[in-house]
Amino acid sequence: MPTGNDIVHLLGEKCANRYQDTRFLDKVFSSAEQEMILRCNAPNLMLWLCWSVKEAAYKLHSRLALPDTFAPKKIPVTNTVTFLPAEKDAEKPGFHQQGFDNTPFIQSEVSIKGIRFFARSTYSSNYVHSIVCERTEDFEKVCWGINLISSPVYADQSAGVRNFASIALKEILSLSDNHRIEYITNTNSYPELWIDGIKNNLALSFSHHDCLVSYAFLL
Amino acid sequence: MKMIEKEVILEELKKIISVYIADKSLLENITESTLLSGDLKVNSGHIVDIVLDAEAQFDIEFDDASFDKIATIGGCIEVIQEKLRSNANR
Predict the structure, then answer these.
(1) pTM
(2) Of A27, A67, A154, which is closest to B37 when you measure between CB atoms?
């Protein structure tokens, strides 16, 4: 069963005060979403939360159907909240976990081409991260993690998220360091997991932005 | 507005896209069938950046339906030409 995830570095270039950029808002969000963002007590955070939900939904949908161009306005986010609690409860990067026990999250719904998905988003002062699943009960089985890496270079982010996910996989699947974990990007641009040269059915979703990396997969 | 040749649009598009991809060498052999995400590895999030930059560069506006057509370089060129034509007919 696939999932989709997305992380946004809130302090990244082009992220600060983007809610004031009306051209961007009009390209990405419906008028209902814009109203929700602008009514929120933390409009910029809500903007990137909605964005990350759309991106995560797009990634999940691309696993279920042939990938299409990312058209964010056609991926409506609904049923979210308009008051975001302070970020002090959020976990600092550098963790792996399963499910959302004891983790505060914002739940929302999102649909793409008429298919409804469910999203859970977590945030801190410098990131927002969303995971999208087909069913709400899937969130109990989702393994995910967020980490900080030292280099913002694209190739390092890509390697960094894969190395970070491998740490979790080794523990969950009881693999020793002798096992070879590889991620091969397929023709639809998503990573396939291969262990010791054999394709594994775990469908991992990777995301990285600047020095932040995250993964998610369903057990 | 004066119509712009397809080759000129392609060169401008390459400049815009190059800002958003890690491996600039992928732009060397692009054709109209080159896929933005699959071939050039454009991150989905940067599709909107490319659209906004193209709007500013060509003084046009992509509508919501335009997003359905921009999976390939040829699709992007087609949308830009279409918008330039409708600007010229105003």
Answers:
(1) 0.92
(2) A67
Residue A46 token pair: 């809500």
How far apart CA A86 and CA A91 sit, in angstroms, is: 12
Token pair belonging to A9:
């570095």
Residue type, B36: L
Please give the Cα distance from A193 to A201 (Å, whole number): 7
- What is the Cα A22 distance to its own chain's centre? 24
* Interface touch B44/A70, C-beta < 8 Å: yes
Structure tokens at A29: 């969000």
Q: Is B64's CB within 8 Å of A74's CB?
A: yes
Q: Which residue has the higher pLDDT, A92 or A214?
A: A214
pLDDT in tens, B8-63: 999 999 999 999 998 899 999 999 999 998 889 888 889 999 999 999 999 999 99
SS3 category, A148: strand
ipTM of the complex: 0.84
- Please provide residue A137's backbone torsions phi and psi, each rounded to the nearest 5 degrees: -65, -20
Cα A197 to Cα A182, A183, A184, A194, A204, distances in angstroms: 8, 10, 11, 6, 17
Structure tokens at B11: 């060169």
Each residue's pLDDT tens digit, A56-95: 999 999 999 877 889 999 999 998 887 777 765 556 788 9
Q: Across the A/B interface, how many CB contacts are shorter than 8 Å?
A: 47
